[in-house]
User: What shape does this take?
Amino acid sequence: MSEKISSIAQTLPHLGVNDPARVGALFAEVRAAFDRDASSAGDEASWKILRDAWLGRKSGVLTLVTDNWLKPASPELKRAVGAALNELRAHVEAQIEERRKALQASTEQTAAARERLDLSLPGVERPIGSRHLVRQVQEEIERIFLSIGFSVVEGPEIETPYYNFEALNIPEYHPVRDDMDTFYLDVPPGAKPLLLRTHTSPMQIRTMEKQKPPVRIIVPGKVYRRDNPDATHSFMFHQVEGLAVDTDITFCEFKGTMEYFIREFFGPSVKTRFRPSYFPFTEPSAELDASCIFCGGRGSGCAKCKGSGWIELFGAGMVDPSVYGFVNYDAKKLSGFAFGLGPDRMAMLKYGVEDIQTFFQNDVRFLRQFP
Ligand code: PHE
Assistant: This one.
């Protein structure tokens, strides 16, 4: 570069320039040299060299032009040199800046091109699990009840004795509490006792406290009892509570809804049976049975139903009027039914699972059988 414009190392008188008319041509040469230089600055490193060569404070071309041409220029030439130098400086600065922008844009473009996703490449396979069988059954139960106007609510697993027992018409001395012995939490001395709920029925009370009738809800969730683990018992298992309360609900609706559910769940050929039972919060109470899905209800020789032809499914009943008293519902105007399904048990029946423990052991060989 500096070879081509060696003129800038000399002063104007040395170059024989005495006439303002010749200044223009002189600067045009310098400008042409710059343009050549600039056009070959194709990356950041050569751009920096270009910038320093032309704008460098100590020995850049423009500094030399200033020192060697402008400063010593005779008064006749000074004006013309000054003007030409300003024009050259503006050109050089503008070009260098423009070049910088162009280079930056093209590096961004190459970076973007490098990072572009190739959607035709095979992806990284991340094996995802499937829904647990109990969850699948729970969702199936929800689907059936949602389709007939129930909604799904959930409630706390840690409860007070009031919601778990008292408000469900189970006073402290009631013998039924023995069946539902549970885990009490360690609370500070003097604090109110807390327990792990033994059933989802507390949500009957919590829902009616919050909501005016009519009520049609199901409540899926975990419950706890102090049971020793075996093939049909677990200290933690699942329930789906159901509650329907309105001004015109009779035993017929109760029976029809339960039969509809059982047939939807197990298939149209299954028969249902109501047996009298007892729960403090329902009156009358019933135990629901389905005709044995393993032997088709024949019974004889069937180990699953122990020859009876029937399988016990779940407890239910018409809401005991005394329960309405706990939630300020008018027992004279309202009626309803409640039920408590066990999805674990229903899954065992529907899918032939022999041991409830397999649900909670998380052995993938078991879980994978129910994708
Ligand atoms: N909560 C009862 C139980 O766990 C089941 C049930 C629910 C019975 C609703 C009647 C009505 O045994």
Summary: The CA atoms of residues 129 and 364 lie 9 Å apart. The mean pLDDT is 92. The chain has 14 helices and nine strands. The first helix runs from residue 12 to 15.
